[in-house]
């Protein structure tokens, strides 16, 4: 009899415990609904953040960087030659040549192939293709800027408006309304950040690089004309794009007025070019190195 009483007591205690759990452990319907609405609100924010995060970054491609590494080092190579074919290349020539070949290999274009062992005439002719390849790469960069602008436009057009919570606001649901306000503020900040997304600086950079690339092509063409004896006058206007090279270019223009046989002191030919052309080439090597930094 005592054993039965004990068993009945355990059953009653268990039943009471279950009753207490059901009475106090069951989630308030308003709280459950508030949680559901907050989850939906968080999903809206997450989706918009993913859209913003998917906007492609604007930066110079490695191909463009290698293009201008080639150009800078080719200028340095030309500006370092001495014209004495009976002596070994100077350390400066070897250094620029090594850096040029490394950049060319890194660029990996099937259009570009160079042999610097047999004089400069063929490398100069081949170097004209560098300008063509660079022009193509800069065109790709412009398309990347267009893609960026379109992505920003679409993100701005798709800024969502959060649906306010519909549950009753009371002591139990208050924290969910505060959470909603926090999410809404974060959404507003993310949307406002889009105003700082602009391709203007990148496009300005590309514009300058396009001008630099044209100057490279024109300078290489003129250098080739010099080495084959077909240059008639100095045709370049480098200082219009790079004022920092005005002094060096003015000296070249002054020497270009004289025939090699009657050139005054300071304008004596070096290798295939007027001596004052070399400082200009070295200046360009320095300028072009800084274009991609």
Entry keywords:
293 residues, mainly alpha, two-stranded antiparallel ribbon, 10 helices
Name the poorly predicted regions.
Answer: 16-24
- State the helicity in percent bands: 55-70%
Largest β sheet strand count, sense and barrel closure: 2 strands, antiparallel
Order of adjacent strands in the largest pleated sheet: 1-2
SS content category = mainly alpha
Give the overall shape, derived from the CA principal axes: rod-shaped
What does this structure look like?
The protein is mainly α. The protein has one domain. Helix content is 68%, strand content 1%. It has ten helices and two strands. A two-stranded antiparallel sheet has the order 1-2. A hairpin with a 2-residue loop joins strand 1 (269-270) and strand 2 (273-274). Helix 3 (62-80) packs antiparallel against helix 4 (91-107). It is rod-shaped. The termini are far apart. The model is unreliable at 16-24 (pLDDT under 50).
């Amino acid at each position: 009899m005592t054993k039965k009483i004990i068993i009945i007591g355990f059953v009653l205690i268990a039943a009471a415990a279950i009753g207490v759990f059901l009475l106090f452990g069951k989630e308030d319907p308003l709280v459950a609904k508030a949680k559901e609405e907050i989850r939906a609100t968080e999903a809206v924010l997450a989706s918009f953040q993913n859209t913003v995060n998917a906007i492609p970054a604007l930066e110079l491609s490695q191909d463009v960087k290698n293009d201008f590494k080639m150009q800078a080092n080719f200028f340095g190579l030309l500006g370092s030659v001495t014209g004495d074919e009976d002596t070994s290349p100077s350390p400066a020539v070897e250094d620029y040549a090594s850096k040029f070949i490394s950049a060319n290999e890194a660029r990996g274009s099937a259009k570009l192939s160079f042999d610097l062992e047999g004089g400069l005439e063929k490398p100069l002719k081949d170097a004209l293709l560098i300008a063509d390849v660079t022009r193509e790469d800069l065109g790709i960069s412009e398309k990347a800027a267009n893609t960026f602008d379109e992505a920003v436009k679409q993100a701005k057009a798709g800024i969502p408006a959060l649906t306010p919570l519909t549950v009753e606001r009371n002591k139990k649901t208050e924290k969910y309304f505060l959470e909603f306000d926090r999410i809404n503020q974060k959404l507003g900040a993310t949307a406002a950040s889009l105003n700082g997304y602009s391709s203007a600086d990148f496009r300005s950079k590309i514009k300058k690089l396009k001008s630099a690339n044209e100057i490279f092509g024109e300078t290489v063409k003129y250098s080739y004309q010099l080495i084959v004896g077909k240059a008639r006058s100095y045709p370049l206007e480098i200082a219009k794009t790079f004022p920092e090279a005005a002094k060096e270019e003015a000296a070249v223009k002054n020497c270009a007025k004289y025939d090699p046989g009657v050139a005054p002191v300071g304008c004596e030919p070096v290798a295939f070019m007027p001596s004052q052309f070399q400082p200009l080439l070295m200046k360009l090597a320095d300028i072009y190195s800084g274009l991609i930094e």
